[in-house]
Every structure is written in C-alpha cells, then in structure tokens.
Write a structure and sequence with these properties.
alpha+beta; 346 residues; 5-stranded mixed barrel; 8 helices; 8-stranded mixed sheet
Length: 346
C-alpha cells in the first residue's frame, strides 16, 4: 500500500461530516465537508495491526461506492509505526478491560482487545488498534462511546436515550439500561414514526431551542421484541457479541437536520400505564442521571447541571410508568402518541 494517495470514507452521523480511514457501515455515506477526521496508526506489536490493515485494504479495494472524501493514504496511516498504546497507558494497566483519561480537550479511551482511541478537541480521533483487534470491534466502539466523548468535547449535552420523530419534533425516551428505550422506539416505528437516534442522543442548547442531532438508521432490538412487533428476525445482526445485543438496520431515510425536542419521557417499571409530569428539580436530576457520559465524567459538574437545567426549562419532562410486558408495547406506543396530541405537541 506504501504511500499511495487514497480517499477516505465520507459519512454523515450525529449532525457531523466525518472523514474516516476506516469503513463505518453504521454511518450514512455522503459527500460532505469534514467536521471530524478518524485516523488509524500501527501499534508497534510484533503482529502489528495486520487484521485491521488487511480489512481496511480490502474495504478500499471493493468499497468504491462508499468512498467519496479526499485525504491521506490509508495504507500509510495503518502501516507507519507511530505512537503506541503504552505511550498513553501504563503497562500495568494493559490487562485491565478499560482505562480512561478524559478532559474537554483530549480524551484517551483504552479498551482491551480493541485498542486505544485518542479524541482531541471534538474534531479528531486517532486509533491505535490492539494486536488482536478486529475491524468490527473498533467500529462498534467508534459509533458509541468514542463518538459520545467527541460530542461532549464539542459542548453538547449527550443523553443516553432513544429518540423518535413525531411529526417533525423529537420525542426523547430516557431510562436505565433494560428499561425499554429502544423497544418503545421500535414500537413507535411500526406505527409510522421515524427513529432519530438510539443510545447516543446529542442535544444542542445554544440556539434558543433544544435540538437533537440524528445518528444513523440502526436500533438495538432483541429477538423477543422483534417477534412481538413483527420485525424480520432474519435481519437482526449481533452488534456487541459479548453482551448479546442484536441490532436492526432500519429501512428509512435519515435527515441531516437537527430536530427540536418536544417532550422527554423517563421510563420506569410499575404495575400500571401512567404518565406524570416532573417538577423542574426532579427533571434536572433525571436528565443528569441519564446523560450518556454520566459514568465517565463528574455529573455534578456545574456546566453539566446547567445544561440539564436549560433543557428542563425548555422541554416538558414526564415519568412514563408501565408494566414490563412486551405484549403491551403497541398499546404503550399508542399512549405516547395520544399524549403528544393531548398536550398539543403535534
């Protein structure tokens, strides 16, 4: 591959133009100006990053349709020894499953068996693969945690949420892992509403109206939920093999435009279906608790709480209680749609 000039993959995701040395099948291919660049380096192990380099080389050989941007040669970026993982992570930490060093300007994310991600100033990601890393492992980390940290660096409030477009407005679902954020979004999708993002929801607050950026047309969907809602289970793909998290690629267009947030629901389990408005202080605490980076950054940080307060002041926040019964998902989706209509939101 040498120093031959080649083009980078060009994508749109999270409202950003992304030029990447790696193919990222989750993102939407598009000719766009570059907001974020993703580079990959050699890792200086005896085995190098051959699995990743070979995969990237193959992708460039067969993936011309997805390659639209312009930049440096990928071969040069993957083969040239540069900095290595131990330049950022002490050797005694290498066997730990995860290590983090985070700041608004520069973040280091280390994932054992995947590699190290250096995220700088909200516009550059550099990847040093682990010796045994596969391309799919790196892609999975990139589209979730790594992009969430980059969005944080760009000053956004990053919620751990699923978001649905109900007649031109964003309806946001928060909740603990396993509470059914993706499931209710999938249920609304079957009733004709578009899914905007799943898991990582970046919120912009500096334009007077809170808005959320679309991510990419994919949602976490278990086989049980897919069966209840009538999704084609043959189209489920395993997103995170270790966690047994299947995903479903949605057959829908995804607008690049940011959508105004109309309503936020916090999902909780209970014996009956009910919707209750939260007071401002309760709403702020729930938004802070369900921020995507709550477990990584100090959620009591003044700037973070200020963002949560701004969002709570601009949008109605409700507690949505429902029994943990998958058969009730279609009824739950109808309840949300009716509540939006009653509130005059659509």
């Amino acid at each position: 591959m040498g120093s031959k000039k080649q083009k980078l993959f060009s994508y749109v995701a999270y409202g950003l133009g992304i030029h990447s040395a790696l193919p990222i099948p989750e993102f939407i291919p598009a000719e766009v100006e570059c907001d974020v660049t993703i580079h990959i380096q050699s890792n200086d192990y005896s085995t190098g990053c051959v699995p990743v380099a070979e995969a990237v080389g193959h992708a460039f050989a067969v993936g011309d349709a997805a390659r639209t941007g312009t930049a440096e040669a990928v071969g040069h970026a993957t083969r040239t020894p540069n900095r290595k993982i131990t330049d950022y992570i002490p050797k005694e930490v290498i066997q730990q499953p995860m290590a983090l060093q985070l700041s608004p300007e520069e973040a280091v994310i280390y994932l054992k068996d995947t590699g190290l991600f250096l995220v700088q100033r909200g516009n550059r990601i550099t990847i040093i693969p682990a010796a045994e890393a596969s391309l799919s492992r790196i892609q999975t980390a990139l589209v979730g945690t790594v992009m969430a940290i980059l969005l944080y660096q760009r000053g956004l409030l990053v919620l751990h949420a699923s978001v649905v477009n109900i007649n031109g407005g964003a309806v946001v679902f928060l909740g603990n892992s396993g509470e059914g954020k993706s499931s209710i979004a999938a249920a609304l999708h079957t009733q004709g509403y578009r899914i905007i993002t799943d898991d990582v929801a970046p919120v912009t607050l500096n334009q007077g109206t809170a808005k959320v950026a679309p991510s990419f047309p994919q949602i976490k969907l278990s086989r049980e939920v897919a069966g209840v809602l009538g999704y084609d289970q043959d189209k489920l793909a395993l997103l995170v093999p270790k966690l047994n998290k299947p995903g479903y690629r949605l057959n829908q267009d995804l607008t690049e435009a940011l959508l105004p947030i109309r309503c936020i629901y916090v999902l909780v389990s209970g014996s009956q279906l009910s919707i209750k408005s939260l007071k401002l202080q309760e709403a702020v605490m729930e938004l802070s608790r369900h921020s995507r980076l709550n477990s990584l950054f100090d959620s009591e940080k003044a700037s973070h709480l200020l963002q949560c307060a701004q969002l709570a002041n601009q949008c109605s926040v409700y507690r949505l209680q429902r029994p943990r019964n998958l058969a009730l998902l279609p009824e739950l989706a109808r309840l949300v749609a009716e509540h939006q209509f009653i509130q005059g939101q659509i």
